[in-house]
């Protein structure tokens, strides 16, 4: 949560002019996005109503060569009535611009708030929205390798080392070794692939009541197993933040919402217990790495890796293997 | 620039309901305010247009007992057509509420951006807006002692110590001692008093073109010499950020703008050279203190005290004593 770069009002007005959205009326740096800077802008073309936008400046973690995938995806989904913000192209038709060496994109502002304690009705809507994205991207022409896949988790956890993981929690190193081995050996083959959001936490969903008004922050989106995206979303929504409490009602509502739009194949359902363990390892790996490698004076507070170690234990427990239902 | 406190969407909806502004449509933490947390909210009452607000949560530096002065002042000025945001009172008529032990106020959102490189036309407007505030508050019934006055500068600079000031710049300790002595001995008596903003930097002024759309952040406002407020605004607007370049055109425009609304008395004009040195010492004192006392992991980067040491040198130089014009 930070704004890493300062842009003066005069520069901001020039940026807004380059995107041809009229005169700048307001610009506020917003405390969103872990690795990018964001501003909420208002601008107005003569004779039109004022409009609002999110201006994103891509900092370290986003590769500029990936931006066409992320930004074209938003336009593709938006054109197919998925609740995602569309991008604003500049006067030359480009979906992003460079400003002092950094890439900038202007994205439609969507109303809605990110819930902290979802209701089953909200979880149902999120499941349905995710399924809609999965169906809509079936013919999306671009591919992007999931750079945050199994090999990366392994590398990040190796970098933490046995001592580092033990310092986070006694026994964590052994759990991680066991799980990485299990996941590698049982990774499912032949499941439906498509574009996955891969990071659909409540922070990345805007809602009004039970309606999803926006899925945002697609900067981990990639081509991968659709069922893995369900597993990530499950891990993100069905637990208390700290991972100590699992909510079975949210879990059921999320899956029912998803299947109300896209029924799971039997093989996908059968793979979900394994993919849920994988999703837990994915966030455990980045959180453990960031926990050990965030400088004390950083603008961002690292998130607790234990919250995902607890989810991992939950998903790995034998009594929870039937969580996702039996193949029909 | 930070949001210090997290408020979940459910709590935010309850806060908005208590202020009776309808249903929450959007809430973004904004990177504004050095010592308070701020959110840009949108809410809508049934059958009305959506409206925007700034929600401020007062953190450490603001005393809750001062809030009625600050908030009533906004309503008083707003009713007298000064460009300041009015406050929204809650269902019980209170101008602020407590949430988990911290005070919260809901304030009207105003359009406009804070300029980085003001033009003379903009400086003229800011001078005029300041004079309008000074005239409008002539009958404001509340008083507040300026807790950021000469005694406080002395205390903060004492706390820095000779070694601390010398570490910031060789010779700074001697300059500070000389100036504090000079200012104390020559502090003007009998000048017009009223409500001063006392912190009218470009960051605290919203503009659209050359129009001032909002004066904001009145949390240093107090009862003091009106001419001192002019001196603060002069120090804030007429130099490059780092204090190395003085812009005589901005200076002239600012003063002319002010006098287009409220002509200076001869005694005020005569006191301005001294008050400008005082204004420079005021910001030097807080910046030097913060420079030495900000923890390395703080969310806020301390501002360079040298920028105001340079302004102080400029104002103290004999060739600049006629800067504010001769008594008519």
TrEMBL record, chains A, B:
It catalyses: L-homoserine + ATP = O-phospho-L-homoserine + ADP + H(+). Residues 27-264 form the Aminoglycoside phosphotransferase domain. Its EC number is 2.7.1.39. GO terms for molecular function: homoserine kinase activity. The keyword Ribosomal protein does not apply. Pathway: Amino-acid biosynthesis; L-threonine biosynthesis; L-threonine from L-aspartate: step 4/5. It is an enzyme of class 2 (transferase). Keywords: Amino-acid biosynthesis, ATP-binding, Kinase, Nucleotide-binding, Threonine biosynthesis, Transferase. It comes from the Bacteria. Belongs to the pseudomonas-type ThrB family. This is Homoserine kinase. It comes from Novosphingobium organovorum. The gene is thrB.
């Amino acid at each position: 949560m930070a704004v890493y770069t300062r842009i003066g009002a005069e520069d901001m007005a020039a940026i807004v002019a380059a995107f041809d959205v009229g005169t700048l009326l307001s610009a506020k740096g917003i405390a969103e996005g872990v690795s990018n800077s964001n501003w909420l802008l208002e601008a107005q073309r003569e004779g039109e109503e004022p409009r609002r936008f999110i201006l994103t400046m891509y900092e370290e973690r986003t590769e500029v060569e990936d931006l066409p995938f992320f930004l074209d995806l938003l336009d593709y989904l938006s054109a197919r009535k998925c609740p995602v913000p569309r991008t604003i192209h500049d006067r030359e038709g480009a979906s992003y611009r460079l400003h002092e060496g950094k890439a900038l994109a202007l994205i439609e502002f969507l109303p809605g708030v990110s819930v902290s304690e979802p209701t089953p009705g909200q979880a149902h809507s999120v499941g349905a929205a995710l399924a809609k994205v999965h169906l809509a991207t079936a013919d999306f022409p671009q591919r992007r390798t999931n750079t945050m896949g199994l090999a990366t988790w392994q590398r990040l956890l190796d970098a933490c080392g046995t001592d580092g993981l033990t310092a986070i929690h006694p026994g964590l190193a052994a759990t991680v070794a066991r799980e990485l081995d299990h996941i590698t050996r049982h990774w499912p083959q032949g499941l439906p692939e498509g574009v996955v959001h891969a990071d659909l936490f409540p922070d990345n969903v805007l809602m009004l009541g039970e309606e999803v008004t926006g899925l945002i922050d697609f900067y981990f989106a990639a081509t991968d197993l659709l069922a893995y995206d369900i597993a990530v979303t499950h891990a993100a929504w069905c637990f208390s933040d700290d991972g100590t409490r699992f909510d079975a009602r949210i879990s059921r509502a999320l899956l029912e919402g998803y299947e109300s739009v896209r029924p799971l194949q039997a093989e996908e359902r059968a793979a979900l217990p394994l993919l849920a363990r994988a999703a837990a390892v994915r966030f455990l790996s980045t959180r453990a790495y960031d926990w050990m490698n965030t400088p004390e004076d950083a603008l961002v507070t690292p998130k607790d890796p234990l919250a995902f170690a607890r989810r991992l234990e939950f998903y790995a427990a034998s009594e929870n293997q039937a969580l996702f239902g039996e193949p029909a």
